[in-house]
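ok so for the tutorial part 2 we go from a plain amino acid sequence to predicted structure tokens. step 1 is just haveing the sequence, like this:
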Amino acid sequence: MSKRHPDEFSQLVAGGQNSPPSHTSQASNVNGDASKPPETVEATEKRLFSGAMKVSRVSEGERRVFRRERELIEALRKAQREEARALEHQRDLLEKLRAANVREAAADREQIESLRRAQQEEAKDLSRQKEELQKEKAELQKKWEELQQEREELLLFSSGQQAS
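step 2 — the prediction. this is what the tokens look like for a chain of 164 residues:
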């Protein structure tokens, strides 16, 4: 009230009336801290405007302005509490998303590792098969050479018999 209505405030102070609580102390509790419950408009008015002389010094317009300021402060506090709840909910969702991403990344790493192991096994198997085929080829080559030699010997033998 001292900031918005300085003339009226100075008159109240000059008249010996208690000054209303400053809005800066109210602002410290705007974040919704419930350690000290907010004072109701009626309780504030009773405290500030007690006594017949004090009530007569404060106009009805000033009371309406003061009441409206208190209502707006309460609405602001409520909106801030709701915003804080929404932010907390958003933080929870973000944390759940991060945890899901971590699990998904771990599953991806495991799948990649599994595929790598399978590829290594397949490479070993192919290498073993290649070695077996090379051995088989060497054996067939050896047999082929033996058969060639027998053929040459048979040709020599048959040509030797025909010459005699």
